[in-house]
Design brief:
Largest sheet: 3 strands, antiparallel
CATH superfamily of the largest domain: Intergrase catalytic core
Oligomer: single chain
Helix content: 40-55%
Strand order of the largest sheet: 1-2-3
Structural class: mainly alpha
Radius of gyration: 36 Å
Strand content: 5-15%
Amino acid sequence: MPRRKQPDSNASNGPEVSGASTPSEAKSKKRRRKKSVPGPGSVYPRKDGRWGADFIVEETGKRKTVYGRTAKEAAEKLQQALFEQKQGTFADGPKQKLETFLNHWLEDVHKPTVRVSSYKRYRIILDKHLIPYLGHIQIQKLTAQHVQSAYAKILKDGYKPATVRAIHAVLHKALGQAVRWHLVGRNVCNEVSLPRVPKFEIHPLTKEQAQKLLDVARGDRFEAMLVLALLTGMRRGEILGLRWSDIDFESGTLHIRRSVNHITGYGFIETEPKTAASIRVIPLPEVVIDVLRQHRLYQLEAQSQAGAKWQERDLVFCNKIGGFFSLSQLYQQYRKLLSDAGLPRLRFHDLRHSAATILLTLGIHPKVVQERLGHSKIAMTMDTYSHVLPTMQEEASERLDDLFRREK
């Protein structure tokens, strides 16, 4: 049998192609090409088994890749990315854990814009709640379910709904910045349900209890502070930050210009009042002016005794050498006077509530009470002291009855 002629290895059957594939490789590539998904961008298989889809980020001009377990999933993610880019919500920032982002946001961005007290409160919320519960999650992968679950655990750990709402406010603000930086496409906090906070019940003193407390405090070094709190409704920080230059004895007015608070690690910090409405002028009753004049004499005597140790700060309420009044001493003296008067143990802030309640029960217009307290809106005043409204309604009915009563 004649031998089959072997093809000449040097024979040319067409143009030579460098790196030509074997028939099986070519068939395999053809099969892969058939699996590509048509549409904008390029969807292709990867060596790790996933599928990728490329597109150009309009703002930077750089190529961006999204991934999926299947070609269809990659194509869907590509369509979503293109849609978000068109809407201006596409996130193309660097990947990072939520803990890294929160620390950067608070320390480098938010801290310079807020008061020390606010920064300390935010720092505590991050360290005690947000970072332990959510900090390990990559910010781009954070979901509303993650946040909702964290809030449920915080409640289960014994924290109150008001605490969860405070935590939520911080996280919402931080993620709002993340959206603006294009680190995430949306703020997942908008999709979370918050626990209902029971309305806080205030426990103000009655007119009789307030009078009893002032009677017990008469002649005490603490008397002027109690009188101001009960007759003006000033906040504790506003009282501690009050200076003699803020009081006009001739016109009988007092100017609220600052507030003083003690911050752990920082000491006493002077700041502007809470809101623009908190910067206000309060007309003083004659009884308050008399008590302040007497308090001034006590202070001049203390200044004389302190001699060279005296620190002149012009403070109305100060320690024995003119410095800021100790909070521990304030609470100790306040509790003693409550005990001496046979009254229940109340917060110092309840004196402010007592002042507002007494004014409203005396028939003072709520708008006047709002301005005196420094509330930004009258709705806040009315909501806080709604417990007084039923009594006011009864009095209104009685007055209308007196005015229009018909003779029988």
